[in-house]
């Protein structure tokens, strides 16, 4: 049975890769979504609001299946209209990363929007008065403070995102949940393998929580009394 445990550990590396790649996608989408909501331009505000409302209202499992199977059908239909006879199969890793990133991008949008709104507007106006460009103002003034305000909610989103990666096992990606299921079916001892997988998820979330707590303490220096 030790071979199955090594296989699950190997799948854990894939789980970490999916988590980190999804986090990157979610963060980028979240920043763009927050910028759109705060832009004051009605089309962008409406589009970002519709995105966050719809995505947060649909179960993650259903969204995963819709994008993986619906995306493949849509691409093949488009190729057929263009006169191509070749079909397209979505890569499970890319589909899983884009789906999870797309889902949690909606939550990150609200996280970053709230963090930016928590910063006194006068600081940005002062930067503009000194001739700083909007981009430089964001990098020098808004971003460092935004991180401090966003980290608590960002931490929660990240911890939930890690656990949500188990959904990629449903589209054939050999993460540790998929391999635990295969191992339990082979030896008919599901409890041991699923308990081992649960312990790995707990380890990942515990390590992440400690790292993000230290990061939060670092960005809170000079503003709050914190213990490093």
From TrEMBL:
Q: Look up and give the membrane topology term.
A: Multi-pass membrane protein
| Keyword Cell inner membrane carried by entry | yes
Q: Where in the cell is it found?
A: Cell inner membrane; Cell membrane
- List residues traversing the bilayer: 12-32, 44-70, 90-107, 149-171, 191-212
- Keyword tags: Cell inner membrane, Cell membrane, Membrane, Transmembrane, Transmembrane helix, Transport
Its primary localisation, in coarse terms, equals: membrane
Q: Where is the ABC transmembrane type-1 domain positioned along the sequence?
A: 12-213
* Keyword Oxidoreductase annotated: no
- What CDD domains does the database record attribute to this sequence? TM_PBP2 (cd06261)
- Annotated InterPro entries: AA_ABC_transptr_permease_3TM (IPR010065), ABC_transp_permease_HisMQ (IPR051613), MetI-like (IPR000515), MetI-like_sf (IPR035906)
Similarity field: Belongs to the binding-protein-dependent transport system permease family. HisMQ subfamily.
The protein, known as: ABC transporter permease
Q: What is the protein's species of origin?
A: Comamonas terrae
Taxon lineage:
Bacteria, Pseudomonadati, Pseudomonadota, Betaproteobacteria, Burkholderiales
